[in-house]
Design goal:
Strand 1 and strand 2 form a beta hairpin. The protein has a two-stranded antiparallel sheet with strand order 1-2. It has a two-stranded antiparallel ribbon with strand order 3-4. It has a domain of about 40 residues. The protein has about 160 residues and is mainly alpha-helical. About 0% of the residues are buried.
């Protein structure tokens, strides 16, 4: 509970002050095997899927609150079951106790980078023309492609 409160307080403070503990890093090495359009489509699909997952989680939380206090049994048209699995988890309390006993800090390492997809606003038409001149050279042709994105003709989806 305290760690959740501390994390929320730190997050709110970072939003107000503009500080962040996140660092954007380059993804896996090597060149990509996909076109910009395929990557864009995958990013849009991920955003859509994340929104659906968030909505599902918001709807599931109140139901779980009730079900977690319920014993195994049949309730109307549903059966509630508590099932033990073979999955093992670390006993963090025992690990912390053991490290405290030997007087050493608990070893930690940074988490692996995660993917974050951000939907960006379309640039204003003036900015597009400036970009066209800088990217496409002298009057490169720009078109609105299949994804309703204004981009150089060479990058437009066929």
């Amino acid at each position: 509970m305290f760690s959740t409160l501390a994390r929320l307080t730190r997050t709110a403070f970072n939003r107000v002050t503009g500080r962040t503990t996140e660092t954007v890093v380059d993804g896996p090495g090597g060149s990509t095997l996909y076109t910009a359009e395929e990557i864009e489509a995958a990013g849009l699909e991920r955003i859509s899927a994340r929104e659906l997952a968030n909505e599902g989680a918001r709807r599931q939380r109140p139901a779980d609150k009730i079900l977690k206090s319920t014993r195994t049994g049949v309730y109307g048209s549903v059966r509630v079951e508590w099932v033990e699995t073979g999955r093992m988890v670390w006993d963090r309390t025992a690990i912390e106790r053991r490290f405290r006993e030997v007087g050493e800090p608990i070893p930690r390492k940074p988490a692996d980078p995660t993917i974050r997809v951000v939907l960006i606003e379309q640039p204003a038409p003036a900015a597009i023309e400036e970009t066209a001149a800088s990217v496409g050279g002298e009057g490169g042709e720009w078109v609105t492609d299949f994804f309703s994105t204004y981009r150089p003709a060479g990058l437009a989806a066929a």
